[in-house]
Predict the 3D structure of the following.
Amino acid sequence: MANRTKRIATMFAAMMVGTSASLAGGPVDDKLVIDGELEINTRVPAPEGHPFDELISGWHYRTPETRDLEADSFQNPGMLYVERGEEIWNTVDGAAGKSCASCHEDAETFLKGLGASYPKWNEEAGKPFNIELQINQCREQNMQAEPYKFDADDQKALTTYIKHQSLGMPMHVDLSEGEMQDWWEKGKELYYTRTGQLNLACATCHENYNGNYIRADHLSQGNVNGFPTYRLKQSAMVSLHNRFRGCIRDTRAAFPPAFSDDLMALEVYVTWRGTGLDIETPAVRQ
Amino acid sequence: MFKGATQFSLPAAFAGLAILAASAAAAGTVAPDSVPIEDMEMSQSLTGVPGDPLAGREAFADRKKGNCLACHANADLSAQLFHGEVGPVLDGAADRWSEAQLRAIVVNSKDVFGEQTIMPGFYTLKVGINVDEKFAGKTILSAQEVEDVVAYLLTLKEN
């Protein structure tokens, strides 16, 4: 046994030689200031019980070009969705003849900080709601309109507009409401569960290897404060559940439906993992 | 429920899988999970057919097969863009590891590096939950591809 332990030690010593030659990524040291005016908190101390000491926005892991795009709201392609979302907010739809603005008159006050406090416990539904679910509930109950299908353009635009009204405000999720704590626990379990033929958990990539390149992708902590994000690769806005599903699919696993209990639990937990990071919506990512 | 996704080496559960895999494997080929890796080594060839290092080099780089460059840099393949840095650089791997060890690493790295490693097992059915049906019951590499990749790794020498 002692002999075996020694052999392992020698092998790992040899491996470390290889490791030291690696490319060394890590988050860049830079500041995100939007339009030269609004400074975003992209690095914050972690809440208690968090596996990290410091929480870092995905912005720090992107190339200089991508970071610049996000810092300039005229260049940021995601801002088109914000504009479109504002239009939808003010447009009447459904049998009740109402728009979002009919019920929430002063959008600026009403929406300020709102997006930063989701997902939120919804007593009536008995589960956490994210912005998308809240929009659909309003459409069905108050507007008598059809709920949006997952990832419909209008759903992404309206969600982007609403989150953008919390730009530069710290993300926080209230775990004391309803059964939020149970959902957090479930989300945590999922975060550490290995899935698929490649046998990887969220934590394997985003907790153990953030800062490293996995092929051309620079792994971040996998925070959600920029969602929906504009992805250059897809030339489109990407919703959070779309991103979750993509990451799960990359482990060669079947992925759960959008807004399913599994993905809502993950959203609660992963949002908590980014507690205190400022909302960046619409963030720009690779 | 979740924690043990890779650890549930219940012999009973795997006996079933092993039968399935064995029926799919060509005659003379060792089925996944039926040959225990002992003391981090596996000296027996999976197929008895010597590995082809050139074919192994291709399987190593192919994103749909080994995709080893996702995590490992390797100077021999410097013509290919984007080498990852999650795992050690593989230059000189054959100076550090024997053939039997390299085979064990590729077959199921968890038996060598421990359960927590990020490196997938390329010839094992001890995998994560909810495997997509396209990949269910299958290994990432075939037995011969493993032998080819091992033959290729044995060419990565610095001294």
